[in-house]
């Protein structure tokens, strides 16, 4: 023990360095918490935007399906009556059904392609987290 009661090798300068280290750790913890909250907010915003795009695409497909169904119904009746003049009504109905099956297949492929363009992964957040990890590694060094 030294005269002032502190352990050998310690000095008032050492104590202030410990306080500075504590403050640094405190600031780092606070900054890390803030960074985490910001990253979560970014991820939420990205996912919300993608969900909105998906909802809009699904709504458009639903509306198109209903409108297409109404058009198909009335056009089918019109074409069947027109073809009934040239052939039996059963054959006319079958021809109309095959045409609408082809239309339905095309619409399904286009709608599926639209929904596949939706990205469920928050790309900006992933990139930002990678940058944060690099920054944190440089702080540890």
Q: Could you give a short description of this structure?
A:
By secondary structure, the chain is an all-alpha fold.
Write out key terms for the chains shown:
single chain; 141 residues; mainly alpha; disordered N terminus; membrane; transmembrane
- Enumerate how many helices there are, as a single number: 3
Strand content: under 5%
Which consecutive residue ranges, at least 5 long each, have pLDDT under 50?
Answer: 1-5, 9-15
Largest sheet: none
Instruction: Specify the overall morphology.
Output: rod-shaped
Q: Which bin fits the share of residues in helices?
A: over 70%
Question: Measured on Cα atoms, how large is the radius of gyration?
Answer: 34 Å
The tally of beta strands, per DSSP, is 0
Order of helices and strands: HHH
**Distance between termini?**
35 Å
The overall pLDDT, averaged over residues, is: 80
Integer tally of domains:
1
InterPro entries: Phage_holin_3_6 (IPR009937)
Transmembrane segments: 58-83, 89-111
Keywords: Membrane, Transmembrane, Transmembrane helix
Protein name: Superfamily III holin-X
């Amino acid at each position: 023990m030294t005269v002032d009661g502190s352990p050998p090798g310690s000095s008032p300068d050492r104590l202030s360095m410990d306080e500075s280290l504590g403050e640094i750790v405190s600031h780092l913890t606070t900054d890390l918490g803030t960074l985490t909250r910001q990253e979560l907010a970014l991820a939420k915003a990205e996912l919300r935007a993608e969900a909105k795009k998906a909802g809009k695409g699904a709504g458009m497909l639903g509306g198109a399906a209903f409108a297409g169904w109404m058009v198909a119904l009335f056009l089918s009746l019109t074409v069947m009556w027109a073809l009934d003049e040239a052939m039996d009504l059963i054959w006319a109905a079958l021809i109309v059904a095959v045409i609408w099956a082809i239309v339905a297949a095309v619409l399904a492929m286009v709608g599926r392609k639209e929904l596949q363009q939706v990205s469920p992964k928050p790309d900006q957040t992933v990139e930002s987290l990678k940058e944060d990890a690099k920054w944190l590694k440089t702080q540890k060094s």
